[in-house]
Amino acid sequence: MGTGVQVLAVVIGVILVTVWAMELFFYRHRRLYFMFLIKPDDYDAVRLWRISIAYFNLTTAAALFIGAYLLETNHPDAGQALILFTACQHVFLAVVMLVTQPKLWLNSVMEAVPNLVLLVVAATT
Fold it and tell me: For residues 78 and 65, is the Cβ–Cβ distance under 8 A?
């Protein structure tokens, strides 16, 4: 696995940390309605979902950061496994999101594309 995969893993990790912050702290912001589709009357009802998904994204980012680090240690196979599993997982989850909530198609694209790019780069290096 080359440097390109490491860079993409870190970039996707940073994106996930940003999404974590938006889901946890800024979900009520009007400009982010298109991402979350949470109506003010539903804020309390989706609290558990919002917090769970936010921390899922944070721990997934941690897996990508750790995987990128492990590629440069005596454990590159573990790093590769973390990165590839996480990328595959997010592509799968993007498809699930698209099928179950088509209105979130843009979220599905934003989740799938960087991970698909990572998987293509990993397969070709």
Answer: no
